[in-house]
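Q: Can I see a sequence and its folded structure?
A: Here is a first one.
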Amino acid sequence: MNVEHDEKESKTGSRKNKMYLILLFLFFVGFLVFIGISVRDFYHSFKADQMMEELQMETNVTTQVADQNTQVAIEDDTEIEETESTVTIPEKALDFQELALVNPDIYAWIYIPDTDIDYPILQHPTIESYYLDRGVDGKKLNMGSIYTDYINKKDFSDKLTVVYGHNMLNGSMFGELHEFEDETYFNEHPYIFVYTAEKTLIYHIFAVYEFSNAHLLYNFDFSTEEHFQNFIDQMYTNVGEKAHFREDIEVSATDHILTLSTCVTGEKNKRYLVQGVLINE
């Protein structure tokens, strides 16, 4: 009986050892797969960053040719209608034909002076959030790109245009938008510039705040000026430490608004919005 008992224990121990070895092997394989995916993602991210830096270096001539900046007269209807102010448009060496060779979905460029927000804007013709997880070259990339949904026109003629970008922890993409939570930063960065092949659009930033993750273009009605005014009025009801408004800027239903949207860390149901009104129509 003792011999049979010992044999049973031996077989049991052997099975346990086999299971342990199998689990160890599976863990090792899983670890290698994880390392492989991490290395691949890091490489893709590195190449994407490298490509973006090259594009930014090729287009950004503001520090080299500052005297060639263009000044545009803007009618200031927020105080006295007869007064005029000038806004300096930073020069950028943008060749949209060359950018189209990188990706034909590149149709504009967004720039906020004195920030790292200096990116091409992309739009896929049939898939809304295509560039949510794809780089500027169209390849899969977790950090995605700066993009708009195809529901928005590429000429920025819509009453509301929404530009999306990830809230990256290193501040890239639209991660730096959260700097606008600081009122001083908000006051020191008043303009967004959007460059297209035909024109340069100047948006005066008038509001920053947290909002729900509702899709603005689908959940609000902009078909009439009355409906659009209701949306504008609702914007000003957003209060809190992270919300700031420029009280000297009057926004109405006849205006065109640009909204930059990014995620809020730890708040899946919220978005952080930076909004500017077009001032050089």
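Q: Show me another, different protein.
A: A second, unrelated one:
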Amino acid sequence: MTRSIAIDGPAGAGKSTIAKGIAKKKGFIYVDTGAMYRAMGLYYKERGIAADDTEKIEAALEDIHVTISYENGEQIVLLNGENVNSKIRTPEIGNMASGVSTNKAVREKMVSLQKEIARTRSVVMDGRDIGTVVLPDALVKIFLTASVDVRTERRYEELKAKGMECDKAKLREEIIERDYRDTHRENSPLKKADDAVEVDTTELNAEQVIEKILDIAGSKGL
């Protein structure tokens, strides 16, 4: 019997870090759906296709194959067979992913793949619409939040650690803009599921958040 934990929230709330930690402690598979959308965004960006060019985006869908594999416990995102982990974490690709993810056909393709993963493995899955669309029957649903300033600082430090230069003020603006797109898109907008537990990570470190969510999971028998 497979089990699932759904974690949703805006950019920079700590979803990936927290989901990885929980998956490790529970022995579940971690699925970063945002990385899958970033791979899609990378494909379109490299081919000069605009995020709002619906016709070209949908025409190219059948040529895009995004899969996930694991090497030494690390999630590897494969775009048409290529490991693109090192290419998809820039703000530019993140914004592109947010843009193309508003396309209904793109979301349908990704949701189908995500559901299939959860049908065969116990997962901790994070994203924007996991508790509401991808895994509506998940036993545990979490909605992570944090202040814009804290989320900006986290993303800034993450990019610096990878040797990427960025302007913090511009990064903050991009996060605010992305929040707006994610919450106002027509297809599967970012929102808290009715039965999700909200966890504010603004003043908590990763280990504190992980323990809090594990306690929530334990209270639900998971």
